[in-house]
Structure formats: structure tokens, C-alpha cells
Design goal:
The protein is an alpha+beta fold. The protein is 36% helix and 25% strand. Strands 14, 15, 16, 17, 20 and 21 form a 6-stranded mixed beta sheet that branches. The protein has a 5-stranded mixed beta barrel with strand order 4-5-6-8-7.
Length: 722
Amino acid sequence: MIEFVRLLEEGIPFVSQIPSEFKKSIKLLKHFGAVEKRKGRYFLAKKFQIGRFEPAKKGYGFVRNLLDSTKRDWLVERNHIQEASKGDIVLAKVIVQTKRGKIKAKILQVLWHKTQSVVCYLEKYKLDCMAISIPHEVAYTINASQKSLKTLPSNTILKLNPQNGEVLEILGTLDDPKIDEIISLNLYNKHESFSLQAEIQAQSFKEVRLGQFKERENLTHLPFCAIDPASAKDHDDAIYYDQENSTLYVGIADVSYYVTPNSQLDEEAKSRGFSIYFPHKSIPMLPRALSENLCSLKEGKMRLAMVWKIRLHRRTKAVLNSELFAAVIKVKQKLSYEEVDAFFQSQKSLLIKKPLQAMLLELKELTQKLRKNRLKQGFDFIGDGVELKLDKNLELTSLKFESQTLSHQLIEECMLLANVESAKLLEQKNSQNDNHLKLGIYRIHPKPKFERLVELFGELRLLGIWRERAIPKTQGALHKAILEIQSMAKRAKIQREVDKLIVKSMQQANYASHNVGHFGLGFEAYSHFTSPIRRYSDLILHRILKSKIALNEDLQYKDSLPLLCDNLSLQEREVAQIEQDFQDRKFARYLLKHLGQTYDGIIVNEKSPLMVALSDFPLMGAKVIVLNGSGVKYQKARIQILEVNLATAKVYGVMIKVFSEGFGSENLRISQYISQKKQKQEEKRKEAARREVLRIAKANKQKKQSGKKGQNRTHKKRKKSR
């Protein structure tokens, strides 16, 4: 549905050959009068929205925009919700819109039902027990005797059927730190264990022997190298660079050999979509017999791989030609990012094998050149990732920031190159029947919308980073402007803050069956090919490209790709939310033991309720909802922790002090920005107060006039009666 909404926003041509599922959706929208025709295209009519429904604790709910999370939610009152439940995708229509832009709407139709179950905590209220949902705190009646419920401890975590109140599962209690992982997974109906059939199938495969795969290229003589985090067990990729022939080999685990369509393994992988990574463990997409053994490119083991052989121009490093084929490879050595970075720094290593040392140095030079060329069209942003460190009881002890080093960049550029070549191959015509739409599985990132750019450059002007009044409109001009802005921000020592603003202005990257390019990376066509052990999208792309190079594409299969891409985009967001939810729970559990203590942080949301991201170790990034005071974005604040709700992972605090400068108080630009924002806020408050006074005066005047008219009418009636 996400891809359909995106296409509808741009306009779907009448004559376009679109998948059958999209035709059904257009027919349904026509039934409700929700499509309009303009310039030979279908568009979603005004006053309609296709969005995701989220219930609120008081019985009403909200419809949230599918494509832009910053857009105002539409309020839906209890009598207009229909049969919609949390997470459903719905068609909604505006009932009324206030002058301040607040929208009340009604749901016309549920377009897609999410599998329903809710995670709740048990609350004992007076003589009764009730279930309170996580995280929205909606109350549910439990279909069980009060006597049996009272035997359970307070804060017992339940999984409930919201339709009839049936208890599906008792998950544990909030007192146990190990419950955090269980809650995070169950909020999105994820689980760790695999079906027995999938486990049996995964364990039925034997180690690779060359004699069994004579049809494949034998590349076991090439010294492939795998570089991953030290704790990684699922190695998707390995690289080898032949500097003499300027040829890069990117070997990717051939998961599609083991996971065949409609098999038990395929059904499991499809339902999960992605592996989930917690600080202490991973929840793999495939059984560990495959993900951490037979499919994983382990050191010294023969493995099946799909290999991109890419020949590059010696001077410019442009791709001269490339070829994808099935092979058997053997990883010469498995290395960690830290080990490779140490080698790059000292140019010496007793750990890294001699044949690999020269190759890695040559490959570093190559990938830095590739990176430089790529950034002429794409962007590089500072990430905010942190890795939590937990003790044996799974409680927070410390954390470290994840940084992108030379070794990370080396692997990243190799993988980007393989992904781009995969997208190019996906678009190539190689059969007579290929007049079918170029449906595939692309990773897309649309260009930012103009109204978001207006907001972005307005903020940048306040920061003193952008002085022009005009906003760049072409892609080339926008790229040039952003690079200049990043350069100025770096000199002003506010690159992290400015990068966050830029990223926030952009649309979200997702999966789509239609290619629209990747704005952030600067690629005309891009896809995900390099991680089939942990991403179902890559596994599907392997299947498509295998059939393409074998000249036996299944064009009917392509019709199912739009729905598959929608599901993958949804699953990807869910996995990100699971990982974030787990992190928030660990922060909340830590702060529960430190109630009353004060911490410094930065205001990250200046609207009500005020939100502060803590900056003190080991809580960097922990969000606190502030119950008093006011401030502006980037302003430094001191917060006292007042209350923690372990069930919802929400932390509440009060403002002890708000500083006139930003975090990193030596930064004059941030301080000037804060001053200007405060001034603007005050002007807005005065203007709002002035309008309210005028509104009241006008209302009183109308009331007096209507009163006089009423008196006159009464007087006339009395005259007539006389």
C-alpha cells in the first residue's frame, strides 16, 4: 500500500500497465469518490488520506500519514473509527478542518488489517484487575475470572486478543530485566524460535564439496577476506581485489540455493523479513544452522556464493564491465573492523596474513577514490548510533558511539558498488517479453519535498549557515548547496546538529517495485543484494537476478512484487522500532534506580510536551519528557528525573535549569539561534494572544447585535398583538 500511495501522489497514468493489486485499489477508491483525474492521471482526491490508524487511551484515535511522519495526524472520534484497530491501513475523509489546521476525520474503509494482538500490563484497580496496553495505555477487559487474575503479581505482562479480551500468553513480570526483550519482540508479533519443519530443513543440508557443484565457478584459489564486527556470526559478504587487473570480486552468500520459494524456510524468512540485533544477541531471519553456519562465509570453509566480478578503470575507477555468476569460494581470513583499522594506522600487522595486507592497502586507496566520486552526487551524514553494554542480568552498564572508520568505508563502498550493479542488471532487457513494466525490488529514496526544503533552509538561516533567500530547486543545485552547508557546519562545529536537520527534511528510504532512484546516495538505480542472510529483500533479488541471467524470468511473479515491497518496508520499520524500543527500556530501567538525580541534556523537541535527549554517560540519547518549563531546540537543559513508567519505557522529568547557550557552550552560532528562536516564539505568543482578544471582541459584538435584533423582534410582536 505504501508504494501505491507514493505512486498516487505523483499521479498514476490511465494507460500505465500497473499490477492487478493496484487496479483493485483504484477501483475501491473510485467507489468512495476518493480519486480524481487530472492531466491523464489518477490522484488521491482532496480531503482524503490513506494512512495508518493509531488508537488513543480515551477511545478516539489518529490517522497518520504513511509517507511523511511530520505531517499533522487526523483525529478520529470513537463513532467514526469503524472496525479499525492499531496498525491498520485505512482510507479516511476530512469531516472538519479548523483555522489552526487541526483535522477531524472519519474512517471509510480498512484497506489492510494488521494481525491483532496487544501487549498489556496487569493493573489492579480497587477490586478489579484490568489490562493496560503498551505503549498507548488503552484499557482492556480481560476474559478471565477476577479470582484467577488476582493470583498474578502486579505488573504481569500479558498478550491479549483485543477483540474478545482472551489471554493469549503470560509473558512475565516487569520486575525482571529480561522481560524487556520479550516485550519489544511481542509488540510487533516477533519471536525467536523457528518452526520444527524449518529447523529440520535447515539442518538437512551438508557441507559444500567441490565435486557436487561442477557447474559453478571455482574461486577457492582467490584469497577472499571477510570484514565484520568482532561479535558477528552471520557473514554475508567477502571481498577480493586483483590489483594487477584492477578487478574487484564481491562474494555474497548464495542463500537462495538453500531457501527455495514456498518452502518452510522461505515462509519463515518472509514472515520475519529481517534479522533483529540486540546488544547481547541477534534474532536471525534464518535458523542458525544456516545463518551462522552453512550460509555464513566462515574462514577456511568452502561456501556457495553469488559473485560480482567488476573491472574498473585504473585511473578514474569507473566501472568498465561487470559480471554476476554462481561460484564456490573460500574465505582466507575473517577480520574485524578494529583489526583492519589498526593495520591501516600502523601499516604493519602480525595478525593479518601477508597475501591480504597488500590487497587491503590497495583496496583502501580504491574505495577512498570510489567514495570521493560517489559524493559528487550523493551525501555523507554523521550517524547517531550507540551500542549499549549490558551486564549478565541484562542491565545497562555503559555504552559506546558507533563510528565510521576507514575499514567501514572500505566495505561500504564495495557493497554499494555491488548493489548498484545489481540494480543495473535488474533494469536490463534480455528477453522478447520484457515489455512488461521494469518491476523489480529497488531501494528508493525520493527527492525531498519542496515544503520540507522551505522549513530546512529557514532553520539553516536561523543558524547562520544559509544566507540566500532562494531555495535550490534542481537536484544539482540542491546537492551543491547541501555540501556547502555541511562544510560551513563543520567549521562552526555543529555538523552533527545540521546533519540531523538535513536528514529530517528528507523522505524515508524504502523498498519499491518501481525505480525512482536514490537521492541520498546519488544513484539513478539502487537495490539491496549484499545481505541475503539477514534481509529477505536481498534473497528475493538473488532469485530474480539468477532467473534473469539464465534467461527464464517469471513475469507473472513480478506482479506480486509491489505488495512484497510494501511488506518489506513495513517490516524494516518495525525492526528499527523493536531495536529502539529495547534501547529505551534499558535507559528507563537504569533511570528508575536514579529517581531524583539530575542530568544534562539538549532540547530536541520544543513543542509540547518538551523533550530532552540526555548527554551524560551512560545515557547519551535517552529521551526525557519534561513536565514544566519551555525552551528551544538545541538549548542545553538540566533535568531532574521524576518518574519512570517501565511498561511504556517513558521517562518523565522536571526542568531544573535551562541555559542560554546550547550544548557545547562555546558555540556562538547555537546561542544566536536560541536567542532568535526565543524571540520568534514570543512574537508568536503575542500574535496568538492578539488574535484571541480580537476573536472574543468580535464574538461579544455579534452577541450584542443578535441580542438587539431579538429585542426589536419582540417589540414588533408586542405592537402587532396590541
